[in-house]
Amino acid sequence: MEDVWIMDSGCSRHMTGHHKWFSSLNPVSTKEYITFGDNDQGKLLGVGSVSLSAKLSLREVAFVWNVGFNLVSVLQLLDEGFEVRFKKGACCVLDAEETLVCTLLPFGQVFRVDLTSVSGPARRLVANPSADIWKRHRRLGHLSFDLLVEFNGPNLRIAQIES
After folding, report:
1. For the chain, what is the domain count?
2. Which of 22, 55, 69, 94 fits as disulfide partner to 83, beta carbons 3.0 to 4.6 Å?
3. Which of 94, 114, 132 is the last residue of a domain?
């Protein structure tokens, strides 16, 4: 699970227990513990920055001993100016210019960050409904056509895919 990042709406801050993710890391001198959802605790070892992709860099990420997952905090993303959109079976993160930063894929009962998704302007889908749907499908990390329509409204024409 060290290469999987989970979107967590109940998490107060981004956190990981894996040192390899940090591009910068500052150790903490205080004895601070973070309580997880199951009431278990992990010691805060440091705070730093993590780049998940070219478009998604996380700041103030907690380096925590004993955390079982890499967690992306929805609240912290919102505080950093990102927009998080949830739909049935899908989630995406947009920056302040509404450019797609990443998609999230269902992972059991949660969403995992799809680090292979390609960034691209989400609003371009609505602005140019006659554009090649296959190109949009690839740019958005191979989202299903149903999700393309769901994220972008009824103006998205999918008739082009019929032979």
Report:
1. 2
2. 94
3. 94
Helices (H) and strands (E) in the chain, counts: 4, 12
Max mean pLDDT range (48-57, 73-82, 89-98): 73-82
Both 148 and 88 in one domain: the answer is: no
Q: Do residues 10 and 90 share a domain?
A: yes
The pLDDT, as a whole number, for residue 136 is: 54
Q: Rounded to two decimals, what is the model's pTM?
A: 0.68
Determine the pLDDT at residue 141: 53
Distance CA 68, CA 140 (A): 29
Do 31 and 85 belong to one domain? yes
